[in-house]
Amino acid sequence: MRIPNFGEKMDVRRSAVYSIVINAVQIAAVWALAVTLMLSNTHDIQDVFILVVAALVSLGAALDIREAVAARRKSEEADALGDMVGQMDELNRALRAQRHDFLNHLQVVYSLIEMEEYQEAGDYIEKIYGDMQSVSKALRTDSPAINALLRAKLAECESAGILTEVDTAGSWKSLPMPVWEFCRVLSNLMDNAMDALEHTANSSLRVMLREDTHGYAFSVANNGPVIPEQDLRHIFEPGVSSHGEGRGMGLYIVRRTLQKYGGEIHVTSEEGRTIFSGLVPHGKERNGKETESP
Prior knowledge:
By secondary structure, this protein is of the alpha+beta class. Among the domains are: 12-75; 160-294, Heat Shock Protein 90 (2-Layer Sandwich), CATH 3.30.565. The protein has 7 helices and 5 strands, in the order H-H-H-H-E-H-E-E-H-H-E-E. A 5-stranded mixed beta sheet has the order 1-2-3-5-4, covered by helices on one side. Strand 1 (163-169), helix 5 (179-196) and strand 2 form a beta-alpha-beta unit. Helix 1 (12-39) runs antiparallel to helix 2. The radius of gyration is 27 Å and the shape is elongated.
């Protein structure tokens, strides 16, 4: 038997699933046994004792299930926060590198102009413009986490040869939901769009973020294949995917997360255009009641 290495990273979510299944089986087995004993028993006092034991065992198992569910949820949150921190760190490094290089670039351009090498100066500016634009393109909101996510996803799109456009309005700094949860929503939608564009020529992706009196509206559009009508009706259900076994949880997570904060998500698909659009209402407007932002 292999001796466990306690330095290894434990898969909390898998352990939580095992715990839930085992305890659920335990509850079912205990009550099956209790019913069997009670049916074969003729003493009322013993029936009461059997019921009490079964109830106590079931209570303990139920508490274990609750803790396992909470642990799984915390693990998912920790993973999402870890991704967000990594993206923000990458954005910070890119900004520092850009600031460090700016003066050097300026000196090179100035020297080329001074030597009347105007064509060379123009070529140099064009060469560095793309790098500078790739960073500034993501800095569209006042939320560092959203900006970091956009930076990371735009870099992925660029590597995949996908033409991207980002259109934003508003600061997005006062979301009525934790920003890391919205980043998970936006990340899943952009990943889904990139998957859809995998075999599309001249692929393009457009992200829109709007903040107005109704709340925070967003959309992710792509020019990939049309989603069949029968698939559209089930697209937000768990496990529904056209990208192979083990996929199809991203859109389910998107809808589940948005619904938790009174939000919504919709999809339309036609030739050359598929759009996932959603809205997160302001905290005060959810269901017409005064609510606090989490």
